[in-house]
Design brief:
The chain has 229 residues and is of the alpha+beta class. It is built from 3 helices and 17 strands.
Length: 229
Amino acid sequence: MNPYVNHYLVIEKGEPRSKLNRIQLDSKTMMIGRSSASDEPDIIFESPYVSRKHAVLMLRGDSLVIEDLNSKHGTQINGFEIKPHQPFPVNNGDQITIAKGIVILTYKVDREFDDRTITMTNIFPKPEGLVSIDLDKRKVTVEGQIINFSGKEKELLLLLYCSKNKAVSYDEIRETLWPERKISGEAVPEVGNDEINALVYRLRKRLGKGAEQVMTVPRYGILFKTEEV
């Protein structure tokens, strides 16, 4: 860990911690969860909606990632539901939401001056086609122009991008974008293919010439195609 960088979380909401309490991230791995006789997470919250092993924060050098541990009520970054067991980058100022808003955390980074030489590696990203996505900053550009997305169009684009060059099934799209439609006892939310296709149509329309990168895989799902090798 870089000694010139200070990583911490601001507790915006979540018992037993008061608002604006800080948690210093001074370990490479820190578990978020609910305390029990068998489990004692590093960052503890009392709500029964928080799973005993809800998510884990991992410092990788000077970068932070979070991994949802297949929690019952999920983990979101800036409103985007992340997939279980897939590490997701967290940027300075990002909001981490646990269990649909039971806990809200803001990640903060304080950097002191560091005059050491920076190795210029991977500064220039590989071309991805007409559409380029900076996942860390949640920024989408089409032919060099920044496009502002919101709602389920943005959620779908980020979901597809996280699995770029690999088709995302209709069922996975349903589960990620419409968790509120899930009926008790049913494995998949009740969302028809017509509604998904309408969302894909709106997304393609927003992407303009970049729409060609959003491809339908017949009888399976949707794929975001890039030019990466």
